[in-house]
Structure formats: structure tokens, C-alpha cells
Design the sequence.
């Protein structure tokens, strides 16, 4: 039998959404063939947590879910201050994987007290979270994390291969894509045709409805969620949940400057507004009509 | 007096159960939830619609329930401000399909990932659980995946999908989406028929006697046998007082039941208490969970409550034999799951795609001031969102979750539903299982 990698799953301030998302992983028997879940707070304690804590053994993966804090009044587990647990386990883990935006950046729960509640290495955009520095942390952001992002990263490391990371320590294979890539509303974006209202298949959600797809890093519309859909495919704007500033204020509104929306990631204002002006000057009849004409 | 403190593991989140003992029996229990997150505070001063995106993050296992409760609260704000919104039947049905997917998946997960292994653990303390190991665990996980995939045709994703909006839903599905969703649902039904019930759904739902369920060979009858073996057909009884404030296709309006007597209920009698919490007293408090009461009485919410108020014949028979014991509570979830599977199939088959998904409110949301209440029946019971808005901005947001109803903290004279179910037991192991029979969600509680 080949070597299995060991995992301890630890929760900070969380909604459990990343655990439940992980459980949506379609090929769980393959995962189980390569990994030993020593401890997961919801489903298994193959070993007593306190004996894991009192052990001096090293293990392969510490998965962190939820925002972190050194303040024991804000966070404790097993009647112990959280930092005692995390400091102990992190010293013996080969890799530390932050599953979701809370563990990575602090996420939604950081908003309550940004001074004391943070991600592992970041507090929002700023470097320096629970730790100032650590060289074995990978952030897999998202609210929640996609099960494939998590498992495929674990698998790559288990196979002894390198995972290349972006400036926020996120795997490039996932986070070099934008949510915009693969969005079914792309043609409406190209020709600047706005969605008249939510609840319809037609139109782009970027101009009025707050969609952050063109500036949010993730391959949601490439691999889809629950093997079938995504926020934009269900007619809702991307909330930008993989980014350090999630959740922004007024999520269903497009933030504008002089009535112009923010430009897509990495596209200069000049390039974007020039092209947008030209595209908008043409009225494309087909794109003004319903996608499927039910009357014919 | 002896006091013991034990961590309750393998629930949604973590709880500490502090037991007071007299003559080898539990004389009082304190249920403690830590790790408060403060979503109600985070929502303050944000635009109303942000609640649709943020409240699902209260809970990873019932995110759609929170999304629906929050849209109902916002729609109630419109109504209270003089504009009653029209919600198409299609949008109502899609919301119900999404909610049903969440309930079905929750009940399968809870029975196969919590109840069955916890029962094994009672007789074999060295038992390490079934997760990521047993064939049946993997099959149940596939059924969970298919259930959520069915719902995601409409909600985009689970957990934390966005699909509701004031006035309806945002998705606009095609016939082919419905066919694909039905295919997923059929796979879930096949799993439940083979493993959970040991027979066809129609046959299971035609039963009106506990003996019919117990005579089949199934995961459910196995669980019932085990529970009887350990005395859970008698243990875990509480006040026999139930409440279901949210709507259901199986009954009209908000209802309450005392034993088998069913009467109308009214939201105005709901009362939230911060007694024993850190909110009230930083030093003397011992939990972040508030307590909810109806007319100052603790009531049980959840699948058993819904079955009791809808006068479900099969559950009435279980109740006649076992009262509101832990066994009855567990079986109610399995029975509700069967009803929901068939109901969801009907909803999918009859969904009228010609209707609009969303009918926009006429009023600008930034002109809305006032309050609104949204109530739904979430997997674990009645969930209430109460919002006060000023010019479309949230002034205050209050969430009462099902676990706050079931697992609040009263005192010795007036214990909560779960406390009452635990008092009198003679072992921690039994108390642990009975607490879990309520399907504890500590993350919801410490929102």
C-alpha cells in the first residue's frame, strides 16, 4: 500500500461552510485512498483530539477553516485558548492549508474586530495575520472553498509536486482565472448589453447589478459548482468571495466613478473605456431580444 | 454535588455540556456555546440587500434557509411600507425546492454520518466512526452530492448560493434543467429506498404504524432497534410541546401542539431571552446562545414538531408508543425526508417555466423604512429573521435560529427543551446522544 498523507482539520471562527463544501467532493474514494483524516471536527476523530495535541509526532497537512485570533475570549476550542492549539499543531505540520477566505484573509468574521480577528498570514489585504511570516502556508480562498480547489491542491502536494502560488499565496492553477472566464453572459459583456433586471437569462450583470466576475480570481465558471452551475449561471452577480476585500459593501450594486464601472482586472481605463464606448455605440438587435423566443 | 464538563464533538460546531449530578443522576445541565461571530452586528449600516449575501454565512449547513428567511424579511419591509410584492408561483416553488434540497441532504447526512456511528460508539467506545471508510458512508455521501446538485440547478451552488431577490428568484431555468434535476433526485430516492427505508417511498409513506417501519430491513429499522436496546425509546423525553412557525405544504399557517392537540400560533408571542449569556453578564454568563420561548414556555422545533402539527399518521403512532423520546425525534427526521423527496419531485414536475422568475418592486429600496419579519421552517426548525431598516439601510438585524429554541438555557425551575430531556439521565454517553438527537447546530446559535 502506498503512503497516505495525514490531515488534521482545525476550525477557527467559522460557519462550517468549507467543511460542507469539501464533502461535496465527487471522487471521495480516491481522496480517501491517499489521505488519512486523523481529525475532522464534524465527522471523525480517528484519534482523540487531546492525544493528538499531546503527541510530538509530525503530520502532513493542517487544514485551517475559519478566521483566527490570538484572543482567547474570541476563540477557544476544547476549553483551551485557540492559540495554544494552533501554535502546537502548526509547529508539527508539514503544510498549512487555509481552506476558504476566512482562514486566508479573515473574511466576513474579521469585520467584527479587524484588529483581533484575521487570516493566517493576511488581515484583509495587509500582510501579517495570525502569523507575521510562515513559509509553508497556502491560501485557497473562496466563501466557501470549492472542493476541487482543496482536494486537487492536497493531491498535488501529496504526489510530491510543486504548487505555484500567486502574490496572495493562492494556487495559480485556480486563481489565474477570473470568474468572468466561461460566464454564459460573456457576449453581453463584449457588447455592453446590461441585464434589464435579475431573473432573466439575458444581459450582463457587471454594469448595474454588482457582478465582480471580471475582477475576481477563481475558475468557478470553468469547473462549475456542484458539477452543474455557478452564481452567474443562476442569474446572481459574483460577490467576489475569493478576494481579500470580501464582503464589500452594497454587493448587489455596481460601484461607479463618474457613472463608469470599475475596469476589469489588469485592463487599463483607457483601453476599457475606449472599447466600451465603441461597443456600446452599436445596437445589436439579437442581443436586445430574448435568448429563446418562446412565441415561435 | 459533582459537576462534570464534557465537550460535545461531531456536531455542527462545538458545545460544552456541564452536568450537575445527584445520586448518580443528572440534576441539571448547562449547554454552553462559545465562539460568537457577530453577523447581526456586521449587518448594521449595510444596504438591505447585503443581508441576502451575508446571512447565508451564518451557517454552512443551512445557508439557503437563511437566504430565504432574509428575502422574506425584506419583502415584509416592502409590505409594511405599503407595497405588497407579488411573488410568482414559479419563484415560490423554486425557493421551496432549494429549501427542500437543504432539508433532505441535512437529514441524510445527520442519520448516516452522525446517528448511526454515534449508536455504534455507545456499545463500542473504541469505535472510530465510519467517515471516509465504510461503503455505506460513501454511498450516503453520493446521495448528499446528488441532492445538492439537484438544488444547484436553481441556486447556482451549495453552500452559500445566491438565488433569491426581493420579488422572486434570480435563476430562469429551462426544461432541460428540470430534467437534469429530476435525474439527480431519482438517484437520491433510489439511495433512500435501498438503504434508508428498505422499500419504495410510496409504500413507506402509506404506513401508519411504527411496527411496519420496524419490520423492514433498513438502516432506519437498524437504528430503531439499537435505540430501543439502549433505552432511547423512553429516554430524552421533554415537554411534549411543539412549535412550527414557518409555512409548509402539509399544514396551514403557524401552529403549535401540546401532545397531540394542535392550535394556531402567533409570532407575537415569541420572546427572546439573553439570560445566562455573556451578552447579559460578562462574568456570570456561560454561553453565547440566546434562548427563545413561546409565551414564556420552551417548545421543541424541528422535524418532529412539523410532523406533530401536521398530524402525520405514522409519526402519531410513534409518538403514541414512545412520546417525545429521542427515538421519536430521530425517526421524525427520516419520515420527513421521505415526504420531502416526493414533494420535491412533484414540484419539479409541475414547475411552470412560463411565469416570471422575478417581479421587480416598484419602490426604490433606498426609500424603505420600517421593519420586516421573515419566518421559515429550516432543517432544524423555525428560523426567524427580523430586520429594521432606515432609508434602505439596516438599522438592526435579529436572527432566532432553531437551535436557540431547542438548546437554550433555562434554570432548574424552568429548564429548556434539551435540558429537560437530559435531566434524570444516569450517564454522559446517554446525555451526549440525546443532545445530538436535536441535531445541534452551534454555528447557527453563535451567529
Sequence:
Amino acid at each position: 500500500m502506498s503512503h497516505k498523507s495525514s490531515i488534521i482539520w482545525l476550525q477557527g471562527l467559522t460557519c462550517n461552510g468549507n467543511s460542507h463544501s469539501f464533502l461535496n467532493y465527487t471522487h471521495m474514494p480516491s481522496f480517501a485512498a491517499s489521505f488519512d483524516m486523523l481529525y475532522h471536527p464534524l465527522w471523525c476523530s480517528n484519534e482523540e483530539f487531546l492525544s493528538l495535541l499531546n503527541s510530538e509526532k509530525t503530520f502532513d497537512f493542517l487544514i485551517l477553516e475559519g478566521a483566527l485570533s490570538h484572543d482567547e475570549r474570541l476563540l477557544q476550542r476544547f476549553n483551551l485558548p485557540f492559540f495554544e492549539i494552533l501554535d502546537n499543531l502548526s509547529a508539527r505540520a508539514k503544510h498549512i492549508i487555509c481552506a476558504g477566505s476566512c482562514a486566508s484573509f479573515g473574511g466576513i468574521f474579521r469585520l467584527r474586530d479587524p484588529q483581533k480577528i484575521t487570516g493566517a498570514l493576511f488581515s484583509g489585504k495587509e500582510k501579517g495575520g495570525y502569523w507575521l511570516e510562515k513559509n509553508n502556508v497556502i491560501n485557497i480562498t473562496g466563501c466557501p472553498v470549492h472542493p476541487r480547489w482543496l482536494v486537487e491542491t492536497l493531491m498535488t502536494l501529496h504526489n510530491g509536486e510543486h504548487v505555484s502560488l500567486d502574490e496572495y499565496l493562492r494556487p495559480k492553477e485556480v486563481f489565474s482565472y477570473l470568474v468572468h472566464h466561461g460566464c454564459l453572459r460573456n457576449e453581453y459583456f463584449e457588447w455592453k448589453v446590461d441585464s434589464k433586471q435579475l431573473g432573466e437569462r439575458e444581459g450582463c450583470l457587471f454594469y448595474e447589478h454588482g457582478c465582480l466576475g471580471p475582477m475576481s480570481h477563481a475558475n468557478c465558471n470553468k469547473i462549475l459548482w456542484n458539477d452543474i452551475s455557478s452564481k452567474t449561471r443562476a442569474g446572481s452577480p459574483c460577490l467576489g468571495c475569493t478576494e481579500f476585500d470580501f464582503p464589500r459593501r452594497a454587493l448587489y450594486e455596481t460601484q461607479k466613478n463618474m457613472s463608469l464601472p470599475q475596469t476589469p482586472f489588469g485592463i487599463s481605463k483607457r483601453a476599457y473605456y475606449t472599447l466600451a464606448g465603441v461597443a456600446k455605440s452599436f445596437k445589436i438587435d439579437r442581443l436586445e431580444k430574448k435568448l429563446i423566443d418562446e412565441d415561435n | 454535588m459533582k459537576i462534570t464538563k464534557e465537550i460535545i464533538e461531531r456536531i455542527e460546531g462545538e458545545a460544552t455540556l456541564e452536568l450537575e449530578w445527584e445520586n448518580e443522576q443528572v440534576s441539571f445541565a448547562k449547554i454552553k456555546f462559545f465562539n460568537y461571530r457577530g453577523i447581526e452586528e456586521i449587518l448594521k449600516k449595510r444596504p438591505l440587500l447585503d443581508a441576502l449575501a451575508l446571512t447565508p454565512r451564518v451557517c454552512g449547513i443551512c445557508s439557503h434557509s437563511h437566504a430565504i428567511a432574509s428575502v422574506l424579511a425584506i419583502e415584509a419591509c416592502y409590505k409594511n411600507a405599503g407595497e405588497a410584492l407579488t411573488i410568482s408561483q414559479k419563484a415560490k416553488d423554486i425557493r421551496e425546492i432549494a429549501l427542500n434540497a437543504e432539508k433532505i441532504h441535512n437529514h441524510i447526512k445527520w442519520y448516516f454520518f452522525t446517528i448511526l456511528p454515534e449508536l455504534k460508539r455507545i456499545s463500542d467506545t473504541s469505535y472510530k466512526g465510519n467517515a471516509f471508510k465504510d461503503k455505506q458512508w460513501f454511498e450516503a455521501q453520493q446521495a448528499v452530492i446528488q441532492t445538492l446538485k439537484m438544488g444547484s440547478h436553481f441556486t447556482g451552488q451549495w453552500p452559500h448560493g445566491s438565488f433569491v431577490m426581493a420579488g422572486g428568484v434570480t435563476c430562469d431555468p429551462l426544461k432541460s434543467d428540470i430534467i437534469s434535476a429530476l435525474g439527480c433526485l431519482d438517484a437520491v430516492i433510489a439511495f433512500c429506498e435501498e438503504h434508508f427505508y428498505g422499500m419504495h417511498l410510496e409504500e413507506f409513506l402509506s404506513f401508519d404504524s411504527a411496527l411496519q417501519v420496524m419490520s423492514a430491513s433498513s438502516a432506519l429499522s437498524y437504528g430503531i432497534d439499537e435505540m430501543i436496546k439502549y433505552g432511547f425509546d423512553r429516554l430524552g423525553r421533554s415537554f411534549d410541546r411543539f412549535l412550527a412557525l414557518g409555512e409548509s405544504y402539509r399544514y396551514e399557517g403557524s401552529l403549535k401542539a401540546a401532545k397531540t392537540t394542535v392550535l394556531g400560533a402567533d409570532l407575537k408571542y415569541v420572546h427572546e431571552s439573553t439570560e445566562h449569556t455573556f451578552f447579559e453578564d460578562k462574568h456570570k454568563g456561560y454561553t453565547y446562545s440566546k434562548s427563545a420561548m413561546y409565551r414564556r414556555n420552551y417548545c421543541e422545533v424541528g422535524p418532529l414538531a412539523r410532523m406533530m402539527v401536521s398530524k402525520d399518521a405514522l409519526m402519531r403512532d410513534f409518538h403514541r408508543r414512545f412520546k417525545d423520546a429521542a427515538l421519536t425525534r430521530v425517526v421524525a427526521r427520516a419520515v420527513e425526508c421521505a415526504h420531502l423527496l416526493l414533494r420535491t419531485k412533484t414540484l419539479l414536475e409541475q414547475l411552470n417555466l412560463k411565469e416570471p422568475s422575478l417581479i421587480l418592486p416598484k419602490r426604490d429600496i433606498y426609500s424603505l423604512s420600517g421593519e420586516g419579519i421573515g419566518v421559515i421552517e429550516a432543517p432544524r426548525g423555525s428560523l426567524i429573521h427580523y430586520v429594521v431598516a432606515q432609508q434602505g439601510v439596516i438599522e438592526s438585524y435579529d436572527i432566532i435560529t432553531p437551535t436557540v429554541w431547542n438548546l437554550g438555557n433555562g434554570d432548574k425551575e424552568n429548564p429548556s427543551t434539551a435540558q429537560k430531556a437530559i435531566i434524570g439521565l444516569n450517564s454522559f454517553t446517554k446525555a451526549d446522544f440525546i443532545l445530538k438527537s436535536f441535531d445541534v447546530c452551534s454555528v447557527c446559535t453563535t451567529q
